[in-house]
């Protein structure tokens, strides 16, 4: 009994001292008083009538002291210092909104907005369950304000999210004919990191895929996560473009997340060139591709398509045919064989018939085909 009494006397004496001082001098006294307040007076025996008013008086004095100290700590630039005392009060009554707001502010100011929101949620739940009440407008507004500070929970991704990290461009079937200037210019564009999307456009068979693959191969070592080739020639449904990209990246399908989410998460930090080949049949996927570029800061996309995607970020890159003997008079074999288109024709013909040769007789026809 004697020890207890001395605690109370000391507690009240510290508070009385604090009241005589200027606010900036009060903090150590308030803190000492709160250290002395270990538990409510005679809490083991709550039905002692004489103790009730005293217990109530001390509780209120302690509450006022915590709130005052919180304010002084905040002004002193140390808003986190009172959090343990505030939490002890909330453990007794988490629906005390004056304490709750002070605690939420202290937590938010000391970099723990998520902790503030947890206590708010606990308070709201208790208010509803125990008192069938709702939080005051001021408390709710504070929670909204702090809620805006809490970062969105990170997407929890399956382990298979890691992307494959090697160049995956199909090997060239033969040597490239001509196109050295085109490869070089395309390369420059891809290495310009302000360029996010390049679309090589042109008629079917003009060599878009071949050129894009060549350029991608040349720059693959400049992207630390390499190049990923996505063949879209057989994809007819624009909604299947992202799943095809995810598959090419080696990202496992997941019922919990849509492909856009998975790809964005996987490519968040990735320094990667994505080669989307033959996009012309799925141009309606343009908005999804645009969103992907926005979500993945270091992603560059090289597309091939008969038509451009018509996105703001797009650099359209029209590809002209290989050089052709375009004047009808060109018919001498030694002249037309210098044209790249003829060279390609001859290579194809020889793949079927190794003995195929340009002659005076067939040269005019060959030039006509190449045109
Ligand atoms: N410059 C070139 N050198 C060698 N072969 C080429 C060249 N350009 C295109 N080809 C070949 O011609 C065919 C059609 O080219 P491709 O790139 O698929 O055209 P597109 O994608 O424009 O439809 C492919 O077999 C390709 O390997
Ligand atoms: Mg193609």
From TrEMBL:
Sequence ranges assigned to domain AAA+ ATPase in this UniProt record: 194-323
Species of origin: uncultured Chloroflexia bacterium
Domain of life according to the entry: Bacteria
SMART domains: AAA, BTAD
Gene3D superfamilies reported for this sequence: P-loop containing nucleotide triphosphate hydrolases (3.40.50.300), Tetratricopeptide repeat domain (1.25.40.10)
All copies of domain Bacterial transcriptional activator, residue ranges: 6-147
SUPFAM superfamilies found in the cross-reference section: P-loop containing nucleoside triphosphate hydrolases (SSF52540), TPR-like (SSF48452)
Name used for this protein in its record: Bacterial transcriptional activator domain-containing protein
């Amino acid at each position: 009994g004697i020890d207890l009494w001395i605690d109370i006397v000391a507690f009240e004496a510290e508070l009385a001292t604090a009241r005589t001082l200027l606010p900036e001098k009060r903090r150590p006294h308030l803190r000492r008083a709160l250290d002395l307040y270990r538990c409510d007076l005679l809490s083991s025996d709550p039905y002692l009538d004489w103790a009730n008013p005293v217990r109530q008086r001390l509780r209120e004095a302690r509450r006022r002291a915590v709130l005052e100290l919180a304010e002084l700590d905040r002004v002193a630039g140390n808003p986190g210092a009172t959090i343990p005392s505030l939490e002890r009060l909330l453990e007794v009554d988490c629906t005390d909104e004056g304490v709750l707001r002070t605690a939420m502010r202290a937590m938010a100011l000391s970099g723990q907005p998520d902790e503030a929101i947890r206590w708010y949620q606990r308070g709201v739940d208790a208010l509803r369950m125990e008192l069938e009440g709702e939080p005051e407008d001021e408390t709710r507004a504070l929670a909204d304000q702090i809620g805006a500070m809490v970062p969105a929970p990170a997407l929890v991704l399956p382990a298979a999210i890691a992307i494959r990290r090697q160049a995956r461009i199909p090997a060239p079937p033969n040597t490239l004919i001509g196109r050295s200037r085109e490869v070089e210019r395309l390369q420059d564009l891809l290495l310009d990191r302000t360029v996010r999307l390049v679309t090589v456009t042109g008629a079917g068979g003009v060599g878009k895929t071949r050129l894009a693959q060549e350029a991608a191969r040349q720059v693959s070592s400049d992207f630390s996560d390499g190049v990923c080739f996505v063949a879209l020639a057989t994809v007819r449904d624009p909604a299947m473009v992202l799943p095809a990209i995810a598959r090419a990246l080696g990202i496992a399908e997941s019922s919990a997340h849509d492909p856009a989410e998975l790809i964005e998460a996987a490519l968040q930090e990735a320094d990667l060139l994505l080669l989307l080949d033959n996009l012309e049949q799925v141009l309606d996927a343009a908005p999804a591709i645009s969103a992907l570029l926005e979500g993945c800061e270091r992603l560059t996309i090289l597309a091939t398509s008969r038509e451009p995607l018509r996105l703001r970020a797009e650099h359209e890159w029209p590809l002209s045919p290989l050089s052709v003997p375009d004047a009808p008079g060109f018919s001498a074999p030694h002249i037309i064989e210098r044209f790249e288109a003829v060279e390609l024709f001859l290579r194809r013909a020889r793949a079927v018939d190794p003995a195929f040769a340009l002659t005076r007789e067939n040269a005019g026809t060959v030039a006509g085909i190449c045109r």
